[in-house]
Amino acid sequence: MNLQETAQVLAKIQLGDNRQVDELTVREWHDSIGHLAVHEAIEAVRMHRRESLNYLMPAHVIANVHRVRDRIAAESRKDRQVESRRQDLELRARQRSREDVWRDMLADPHESERTKAWIREQLQ
Fold it and tell me: How confident is the model at residue 33 (pLDDT cuts 50, 70, 90)?
């Protein structure tokens, strides 16, 4: 984030605890948390306010950003697992349907022997 965004994060913090924020404070915090995304830092401040009575320090923001990122990564993994399972079930359903059609074709007296031979190969 840039200095202006760091100032926004500090404004959010200042609203919560009435600390004095000046340009030097913004620069010092930017030195500590400037590598973070502003939306993550603000969410980290919210988390701290909900969960802690401690005076908010840059280390709290950094730790909470890591928690936010871990939570998002876990949700993403879970979403991918659910989607993978859904796709697997759809594929199995399509395969069963195809095999059912092939078995019906094998039982059909009007189907050519060449087609039946191909189907037998596919079913093995």
Answer: very high
